[in-house]
Structure prediction request, 433 residues.
Amino acid sequence: MVKNIIIVGGGFTGAQCAKILNDNLPENYQLYLFDIKNYFQYTPSIHKLLTHPHYEKKIKVPYSKFLKKTKIITEPVSKINKDNIKAGKTTHPFDYLIICSGASNKTISWKAKNCFILKNIDDAKKVHDSLQVARCVTIVGGGYVGTEIAGELINKTDKHISLVEKSDRLLSRQYVDAGTLAHNYLTKKGVKLYFNQEIKKFQSSFALTSQREKIMTDLMIWCVGITPNTSFLNKYFKKNSYGQLITTPSLNLQGYKNIFAGGDITDIIEEKSAQNAEYHGEIIAKNILKSINKKKLVNYESKKRTMVISLGDYNSILVMNNTAFDGLIPAFMKKMIEKIIVWKYKYPKSKILIIQDGVESSLLWLKQKAISYHSKVINLRKIYKGKESSKQYDNIRSRSSKKNSRSERRRNNNSKRKRVRSKSKKSSKRKRS
Ligand SMILES: Cc1cc2nc3c(=O)[nH]c(=O)nc-3n(C[C@H](O)[C@H](O)[C@H](O)COP(=O)(O)OP(=O)(O)OC[C@H]3O[C@@H](n4cnc5c(N)ncnc54)[C@H](O)[C@@H]3O)c2cc1C
Prediction:
């Protein structure tokens, strides 16, 4: 009898998991992928569509291209139960289920025209159209999404860009130097930054902040965080106070051996990123294959991973091991990462994969070179500073030694004089006697 494996959501977790299972499942298993859309999108480059909508074709890959044996169902899932899911009017039973429906951007509680979020290609197209008539753009939220959008718009449009952030710096979840680099770059380019403030009101031509500052705004882009897409799950699935699904180290849903969850929807304490989501997909696929073969499951290890934050086409910030640096090399790496991931799906079984492997290893090599170059620069700076300070020290020492020798000479002269005086006194005494 054929057994069903269902994946809900074909984003970073779902697509990666589906790709592995599609190629490795035993004959008696059928894989299903449910999503609202029929393609994989490379979300980290969505902001590029704000200024170049034709970039869409570079970051979009139809599922049918890399999931030849999988049944793709383009319908929103409306209910998930213990042993079946509902999409449209149909109920689909499963033997294994993977929930990876991602997260939605938080939206404003009050209604406002010309206020947008950026989550998918359609959102980006809407913002692009509105940008044609806007002069002043306000970005709300200075996390990596808000910062990347600011970098994109300031480099490729002539709009007045403002960015409002609730905390006291940009990229507040990242290493502090990354925030400083973004801050310096954006202010130099002309982005107006407002910290420790929130948007309280947005009317036709201005936004009002919590510190009662008025910001000229024709278009607002809201990037203040995400909420997991879990509303369609039955009540008996455990969620935490953020609505995230509670998972075990092997990425099972707590209490369910045949249900897994991965990506932005989970309660794993780490940066919600494409990279992490992709790793979840890999682990889940491995564990399903292990479970089918009655083997011990592997655990997911959460790590602080390297992050590249784009600031336009020719500058990005690379954050790793508590250091951050920016420039053309990180920008090139960001571009290559996009190419590699999109190629992986676009050309799943072609010679390109060999090139991809080559590119991946050269990227790794480049990364190592960049790290060693960066640490060399830091060491050189330290040595230079050390030399500078040792030069200064030598100067001080030589000055003080000159001083010392002068005072020593003075002391010697004085003692000579004293000795001469005492000798002459003694001789005069002798003469008198
Ligand atoms: C603008 C933007 C820029 C980003 N930049 C970066 C970056 O530079 N680097 C980085 O590492 N991360 C970045 N991220 C974060 C990254 O995209 C996410 O962490 C990652 O996509 C999460 O993967 P996921 O599989 O959990 O969810 P997603 O990739 O969001 O996939 C979820 C999928 O579920 C589908 N779905 C949702 N509800 C249903 C339903 N009811 N029925 C069926 N299907 C459904 C959706 O259509 C979607 O395809 C960015 C995110 C955004 C929005």
Notes: The CA atoms of residues 51 and 157 lie 8 Å apart. DSSP finds eight helices and 23 strands in the chain.
